[in-house]
Amino acid sequence: MSRLLTLQNRLKVRARFDRLADHQARAFETIVDHWRYPGVVNLVGPSGAGKTFLGWALAHDRDAFHCAAPELFDPTALLPGRLLIIDNVDPDDRPLRRLLAAVQ
After folding, report:
1. Residue 38 has pLDDT above 60, yes or no
2. What's the average model confidence in pLDDT over 62-88?
3. What's the average model confidence in pLDDT over 13-41?
4. b or e along 62-78 (b: 16 or more beta carbons within 10 Å of the residue's beta carbon)?
5. In 3-state terms, what secondary structure has residue 70?
6. I need a surface site. Which of 16, 20, 27, 101 has the fewest CB within 10 A?
7. Is the confidence at residue 73, as pLDDT, over 80?
8. How many CB atoms lie within 10 A of CB 47?
9. Nearest alpha-carbon partner for 39 in 74, 64, 61
10. DSSP β-ladder status, 65-67 and 84-86
11. Are the beta carbons of 75 and 49 closer than 8 angstroms?
């Protein structure tokens, strides 16, 4: 396994609310306050804003399934009733639409 992937995996398992930046913590709390089942959270924003780490923290805290990109989603991996977090959505929303159709 590459050193970069090893580092990424270490960060991923340590993603928790108390390790979020202030702007991420505010986003986290807003998402949790408004998240209802069936729930899909689509994290959108510029590179480097902290979407991925926020997604990992949300997934850990809420026992949700984190999908790194819509085109990587495997519908068989999502358990019924489990919340879904989608990261890295392209402005072309066709992959996202296919993913949401598969989830429903």
Report:
1. no
2. 78
3. 82
4. bebbbbeebeebeeeeb
5. helix
6. 101
7. no
8. 7
9. 64
10. parallel
11. no
